[in-house]
């Protein structure tokens, strides 16, 4: 995986307000199946189930876990606890999600560097032992 490219892409989205708003609106519109202008619990549940489908396919308790994940996702998204999610609330969530993804990707970069350094050291050690 090209961690640096993924980090750059997410950073570009966060920096470019127009690009971020376009992505936020596209995601919102995809979830807002009744075109009401807000996301109801059922729409978010359908989206979350579709997004997480197959993750626990071999797990007998997957249905319970999906329900729990939906509750968590909805409570995080529903910032003002209105029972519906607005475009702004989704945007706040996506910003935080993208920032967290950047952090995780940066950790991946560090792990790659470490793995390469260890491999190089082992290669170097092996060649000096011959």
Give helix and strand order, one letter per element, not per position. HHEHHEH
Rg, please?
20 Å
Helix content: over 70%
The strands making up the biggest β-sheet line up spatially as 1-2
List low-pLDDT spans: 56-60, 125-130
* CATH superfamily heading: EF-hand
Give the distance, in angstroms, between the N- and C-terminal Cα atoms: 34 Å
CATH architectural grouping = Orthogonal Bundle
Average of per-residue pLDDT values: 81
Strand tally:
2
Describe the main β-sheet briefly: 2 strands, antiparallel
Question: How many structural domains does the protein architecture include?
Answer: 1
Classify the beta-strand content into a percent band.
under 5%
CA-based shape: elongated
Give a structural overview:
The structure is a single chain. With 130 residues, the protein is mainly alpha-helical. The protein is built from five helices and two strands. The protein has one domain (3-56, 70-115): EF-hand (Recoverin, domain 1, Orthogonal Bundle). 75% of the residues lie in helices and 3% in strands. The protein has a two-stranded antiparallel sheet. Helix 1 (3-15) packs antiparallel against helix 5, helix 2 packs across helix 5 and helix 3 packs across helix 4 (62-77). The chain is elongated and about 60 Å long. It starts with a helix and ends with a helix. The relative contact order is 0.13. GO terms for molecular function: calcium ion binding. Pfam families: EF-hand_5 (PF13202). Keywords: Calcium. Residues 19-54, 65-100 form the EF-hand domain.
